[in-house]
Amino acid sequence: MNNFKPVNFGNMKPAREVAVIGIGLTKFGEHWSMGLKELAVEAGVKAVEDAGISGQDLQLVVGGNMSGGLFAGQEHGAGLLADYLGLNPIPAIRTEGACCSGGLAVRVGYLAVASGMYDFVAVGGVEKMTDVYGPQAATALSGAMDYETEAYFGATFPGIYALIAKRHMHDFGTTRRQLSLVAVKNHSNAVHNPYAQYRKKITVEDVERSAMVADPLRLLDCSPITDGAVTIIIVPADIAKKYTDTPVYFKASAQASDTLSLFSRRSITTLDATMHAVREAYRQAKVSQKQINLAEVHDCFTIAEICAYEDLGFTQKGRGGKFIEDGESEIGGKIPVNTSGGLKAKGHPVGATGVAQIAEIVAQLRGDAGKRQVKKAEIGLAHNVGGSGATVTVHILSNKR
Amino acid sequence: MKVGIAGYGAYVPRWRIKSTNIAKVWGSDPQRLKTLLEEKSVPGQDEDTATMAVEAGLRALSVAGIDPQALGAIYVGSESHPYAVKPTASIVAEALGATPELTAADLEFACKAGTAGIQMCMGLVESRRIRYGLAIGSDTAQGRPGDELEYTAAAGAGAYIIGRENIIAEIEDTYSFTTDTPDFWRREGEDFPRHGGRFTGEPAYFKHTISASNGLLKKLGRTVNDYDYFVFHQPNAKFPLTAARMLGVPNEKVMPGLLVPRIGNTYSAATLIGLARVLDSAKPGDRILATSFGSGAGSDSFSIIVTKNINKIRRGETVEEMIKHGKYLDYAEYIKFRGKIKGVTA
Amino acid sequence: MTKEFAVPFHWRRFRERYQLIGSECIHCKKSFYPIRVICPSCRRSGHMKEIKFSGSGKVYSYTIIRAPPEGFKEYAPYIIAIIELDEGAKVLSQVVDCEPKDVKIGIRVKSCFRRIRSENETGLVLYGFKFKPVLGR
Q1: Tell me, what's the pLDDT at B1?
Q2: Quick check: B178 pLDDT over 70?
Q3: Which end of chain A, N or C, is less packed with Cβ atoms under 10 Å?
Q4: C80: domain range?
Q5: Which of A136, A159, A259 is closest, CB to CB, to C80?
Q6: Is B206 exposed, middle or buried (0-12, 13-18, 19+ CB in 10 A)?
């Protein structure tokens, strides 16, 4: 038996604390009239307005985008952002970590402010996925795998997560119904999220009747193809109250890596990178999973959310299925998970997702989440994964400094 | 100085289609077809001449018990090479681990390209230019939809390692009979072959098979009674048995090497797979006369005598075990497998 | 039309894909696929040498691809699996020559040389290893 070996990442601490003072999102869905630039600009403008700052105040823009090249013929996302956001000549950085590109943007933006180098940073993510046809979109997404050893032999991205699901069901008895409940919960939550792509409830029967994609994962186990963009404005914590009565503070920013291919992992039913990152995050924030009031986790596929419950420490290894079955991750449960609707129902514009998760936590901690509000929410956790787990970021935020 | 077979292997894909399923679609008389064959092998969608050649080659290496680096030559004979230009033999050499010190080339002479490779290896081995040579006949033959040949065009591979050391069967001699007789052909760029109908019989198959067999017997001063087994090229079940009758060979000496009723005509592999089945149960001292036929046309005849080393080899699957179980396809699945459907996008 | 690469992209992987060759660290004795320069366990204090795997192993997990990627349309549905080789390394490939219902976690398999796909009508034919179930003997 090959056990998880915790790693000491060093005694990292920020030179100063960082806060979020504004958020802006486009609706997630199929935006026929909007290309990469229009999506980025809409989210950027909304965020700057929400923060009550002028665009001229910004000193750095960091944007997550997985695959502008394969989806829109456009690499050099950094160039696109600075230009069309009207921000020339300030610096721009594009971050890429497959589906964790947004989480990496948050990381880089956080480090820029925490280090003391920058005071006003726009952190965003954007993905335009509907300018290519289905097969080409799948090809672009398959770059999140190990191309030469996984995609080469005919694996697809859902296929990789299906391998995780099959083994998880074999090792722990996780059931088809437990997977379905994840999709049902997230769709139910998205009904109350005005930005979500799908705002209709679905049933377990709907999930289990949907077309099989890669056994056991069906169409409704899989997050959709989505266009969308999200931006947050971050500043040093000391000046946040000048701009907003409800600043939200970063308590932790952590990241870890693991093998690119799934088969090379220590265990295919555990994302070690999640375990490493969340350990470091709990250490930085000086909390444990018990203090987390809500979480946005990476449910690219229903099985991923079940593994996340386990790997983030909300429940023991193997009991993720029971966690959802017992209603623990519902709004009103022990730790509401994916109140936004998650990647499944809110949508998954790949590069934007990691930032969208932060935006949801911020809305919740401000008390702005309407009918999906988690009562008395104080501490939230955002968990973003790239590929089948090679890159993971975990951020913890609080409305208390 | 003896030259002979140091190792042999065969490969037949698991898929089959019954000739009645083809007849149903084209309105042919299933009874008439029963005299030709029952069913034929179909290559899987991920199989081709190269993959089957590698399988057969690996089995031959295992029987011979030699390191692939000891191979000095690899020849792959086929009429369905994956590339029109770019050798199958180099792919096979790389997959078997025989590269880089060897010579290699692809051959084409309809169904006798594999046996021509054996003769080439014999030359290199006897002249001591190489220690071991590997000759493979492998085909995924195509038949035009609705044509007679669609019933018999099958898939398979046979591989023979020729050497001087530890041979399990000596090749006493070989004799070939070649003329320019276009009984069956395919032009460059065409998907399917054409054939001369009844012309493929007497002036083609029989003329060359009989002449080569008799030529070898005369050269060796022997008669058919000196031989225990006969393996002929088998385009259908009738031709080899008729050839046997014409030579005065009783059926029971031909039946062990006659596989066409169950797997169809495997083209360049046909004589080689038939021979492999005979070698699977042959005993030291058994004499085998094997005569291939390739349209165009020519026959290579071999006089083979089994040595006592045959009892020392460890075979994996025998030919009989390999072909015993098949997975049946209907005609629609068959044409999808064989890429005969127009307009399929990648 | 699927995207094609220039010849060297696939050519440099022919040997390891045709013969199932990986790396073994002399230091820690662990084996890996594909060929690696740096040992994931020992890092630079490791020493990697090539190992030709026997091709025998067992199914560690599997699934059936029903929505195939570009270039694989004609093969769907097909089985992909993570195979745990006898030497300890794991690989991913297809399981062939059997029905989906015959594949279970734990069954023994053996590698075989198969066509992976063709690069469109005019490009290279790409080959590699796949696995066949071994019937108990």
Answers
A1: 61
A2: yes
A3: N
A4: 7-133
A5: A159
A6: middle
